[in-house]
Amino acid sequence: MKRVEASQPLPPSLWAATAEPAVATPPLEASKRVDVAIVGAGYTGLSTALHLSELGIDVCVIDANEPGWGASGRNGGQVIPGLKYDPAELMRRFGPRDGETILDMAGGAADTVFGLIKRHRIACDARRAGWIQPTHSTKLLDTLHARARQWEARGAQVELLDRAQITQRLGTQAFVGGWVDRRAGSVQPLSYARGLARAAMARGVSIHRATRAQKLEQRDGGWRIHTANGPTIDARQVLVATNGYSDSLWPGLAQSMIAANSFIVATRPLPADIGASILPGREVASDSRRLLLYFRRDAEGRLLMGGRGPFREPRGASDWAHLERAAQLLYPQLKEVEYEYRWAGRIAITRDFLPHVHLPAPGLTIALGYNGRGIAMATTLGKHLAAHLAGTAQGLPLPPTSIKPIPLHALQRFYISAGVAWYGLLDALS
């Protein structure tokens, strides 16, 4: 009998408590051969698998735990197009040709998400009410308005907000202005991941939970994945899509990014009188600070507040106390409201704050590093990765890069602590 490695249970969270049921994904019990094997059943892996299946490619996805177990099932559920850099900066960095390609991909990322949801009838509380980026700093307001105008020039539906308008939209007087990007929206992120898995399996993709990839071996013009369970997978092409939960499967990969914890709290469903005053239009929001806060309402009227937290795994409710204080500073009316859920997940932060695609060996592709915009960017990159793996694309929208481990990566806890202190100072001085 084959040994089945025990997977970790899905951590408690609002999303785990309210998600659509998971589709059955039994552990891999027998060796198999496929066209493409994917390691990691998060948004990148699932979107790529679904798009490959639509191209008639035989695909197998394996995950050490279960679909959506990592950050794909634990994030804030904000579907935001674009990247961390403004269009003008991306054009400067990549030049006219590559810059245009990247902007087309990033600008249409939310369209890809909501298009998949509609086409495959994914039940995930999808709402496309827009994203608000507010600022507390009058110095930064012109920068945000310039950002909005750059996207508007590219066809995005945006709106500039002054102090009165931002106060009305958010229900707090903490900000001096901002902008709205109407391309954006929200989903129940674990339901969305499970919906992608269900749609992919309906088209013939095999997905196996509790199946950890232990070793990659080049073999006979392709690859063999050795799993901790014992069975192997032979494939012409392999995609590694483990993002913030990458391990030693490929040399240097885990050391090429910082796997930072993102912490979230959620209140109980807000009473009607309080709820009416907080994000009445149900947009999602994340502010302009380097140590940003992101917040939204869920389908049942809870308020979610997210942000950075300790690098280590959480130990108790005190690890989320800074978010609860921040929520009450923004919304004093929450003083007597109880918090129902607290959870965290690891996102991959790259040195240049851009997603990375690596092609370290023939037939092997690696993608990671969405820097907090994983729902939109991982989903849309999956579409492009599928075309690349199927051989139907002229190239990738992101120029492939080499894997470059961060110097002294073992000290990343120090990096993050120092960075938090430094960015906190810069935010205070802005």
UniProtKB/TrEMBL annotation:
Keywords: Oxidoreductase. GO terms for molecular function: oxidoreductase activity. GO terms for cellular component: cytoplasm. Residues 35-387 form the FAD dependent oxidoreductase domain. This is FAD-dependent oxidoreductase. The keyword Chloroplast does not apply. InterPro entries: FAD-dep_OxRdtase, FAD/NAD-bd_sf. The keyword Flavoprotein does not apply. It comes from the Bacteria. Pfam families: DAO.
